[in-house]
Specification:
mainly alpha; 9 helices
């Protein structure tokens, strides 16, 4: 039993270490690719669209795009994270509505195929046993969100509970990353900040 706990702890810490290395290693690459586009007002719309689409296809690193903008404009961290949270709630409610409208197995089978059946089953079982609280835990982690939303929608969890779970979890997650980037910019290398 103790070995299992130690393995889980080391897996969690190694996952965090890999995520941190991936983020800090790829920031210069993203900064070079995006360049002056980080200053453009349309970038904020881009972050909102990515955050909304992330509810359907969890392949977009929303946190990374939020961090990149906040590193350029540290005083706007709360506004950008709030926009990302609102967009993710809207995207999740649209996805839940689609699952409730088309509760056939076709939509869930298609998404399970594209996300990977094993991860779909794991997340679905977790949320099925915990309900909206499980949805909150999935949303605050880096697990795929569509299976959790599908289980809640097909279980007829009220829309306000889905919105509250996603909104609360993403508020904590995006808010934390935004605050971290705005207050500890030196951790992410040399960035020219633009005061607004």
């Amino acid at each position: 039993m103790i070995n299992e706990l130690d393995r889980k702890r080391s897996l969690g810490s190694s996952l965090l270490e890999r995520l941190w290395k991936f983020t800090t290693r790829n920031l210069p690459w993203w900064r070079q690719r995006l360049g002056s586009r980080l200053e453009h007002p349309i970038y904020v719309v881009f972050v909102a669209a990515i955050s909304c689409l992330n509810s359907f296809f969890p392949f977009f690193p929303v946190e990374l795009f939020v961090i990149l903008r906040v590193l350029r404009r540290p005083r706007e961290w709360w506004a950008l994270s709030g926009l990302a949270v609102a967009a993710s709630v809207v995207g999740t409610l649209i996805l839940a509505h689609l699952f409730q409208l088309h509760s056939s197995t076709g939509l869930t089978a298609w998404l399970a195929h594209h996300l990977g059946q094993a991860s779909w089953d794991h997340v679905a079982t977790f949320v099925r046993s915990r309900g909206a609280y499980g949805l909150f835990l999935v949303a605050i982690s880096f697990l795929p969100l569509p299976p959790a939303v599908a289980v809640c929608a097909l279980s007829r969890v009220p829309a306000w509970e889905i919105a509250a779970s996603i909104g609360g979890a993403h508020c904590l997650k995006y808010g934390f990353f935004s605050w971290l980037a705005s207050n500890f910019t030196h951790w992410f290398g040399d960035w020219e900040t633009v005061e607004s």
